[in-house]
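Researcher: Please translate sequence to structure tokens.
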Amino acid sequence: NEYKSYLSLKMSYSRSDLYTYAMLYLSYFMSYLSRKNILYTAPYLIRDGIFSKAQLGSSQSLFSITYAISKLSANILTDWLDPVTMLTCGLFTTGGVNLLAGVMGSPDYLPYLWSLNGLSCGLCWPPITKILVTKVPVQNRGKLWSIISSSMNTASVLCPLIIARCVNVSWNLAFLLPGIAIVLLGILIYATISTEKERVPEEKNVKRDDKPSTSTSVPFNYREVLNSTVLLLSSAYCLHTFAVIAMATWGQLYYVNKYHVNIEDTGTLLMAFELGGFIGSTVSGFLSDYITKNMTGVVECSPRALVSFGNAVTAWVACSVAVYLDSMTLDHGLAFGFGFGCFGAISMYGLMGRELVPAQYGGSVSAVICLASQVGGFFAGVPLSYLPDNGQVLGVLALAGIGNVGILAVMCFVQRVKTKVE
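Model: Translation complete:
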């Protein structure tokens, strides 16, 4: 039977598909490296007295504002524009901003350049998700989505090591090297990747020659895009993004003040946080797919929401315990658990945004929840820079964790949200 033979391919991938997914992974890896480099360079600049906490907070908040605007627009534009072209534009412009930051003689310009970098980086993730939901069937989507999104943790694990080597020569290298690499990657992707493949059918009544609809005749429905589920999901995404960016922005300074050690000695703590995020993101994708395939009818809500709830509890417990501990060794384990929970939940939010509403509203809902996430990013910047004691950061994150657990509990056990698109 021809159709059964075609369905059997859904669990396998051609060399072309694997190459595409590898390039998507590298794209987000480089995009993330090219915006995290300022966070790991700043502590050295602050130590040397040529940068301040206020400038670091301004850089993060300005980035979050422009990133939100860019990502909001890009999520909507993916319904009309070629995703590969959009991704290439994002990589080129991100590389250009980093090169410009690298040739500047003073770090005083970094807050302004990082606002431009937000516009550039916002063009990278939306086309990646568009390619994924077009090419990958729902029962495998969680795995690939989480694996590719975990590239941000890989970048964050390697970033402190790369930055430490660069600043020994010059802080400018921390921006020049990623800038060159991401421009070269953009050229490679534009020359080798095509999205002109048929969409894999996901239901038995879908014919083999069916293609994804690009019709824009469906009337826009604000009730679908701004329903209570989307607003709850947006709130959870906002709080988790706040937690992750606060840890990345202020984590090193917090541990330096807490244990009175050098900046280099705190790198392993943030690496534990990002390593936990990598594992949490990957495990969440595989676990949510497993529940989708094997526990239909047993689980009464979206598997992605249930996995996110478990991750939120993990992150909150780890952060709350860390507030009362004074052991650098144990802090490594807690940082790992905090990263596992935060990134495990975040890896599911974007996918949930596209699956919890009818397909024609997926891009708009993704835009809404991504905008909400960057509100969290903004408050992790300037507002936290005014805390008189960096040690208060973990207390604030623990409070945010309580909010996350409550929101996801409502989604899972009160609303019992369900997937509306396959």
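Researcher: Any highlights?
Model: Residues 15-47 form the longest helix (33 residues).
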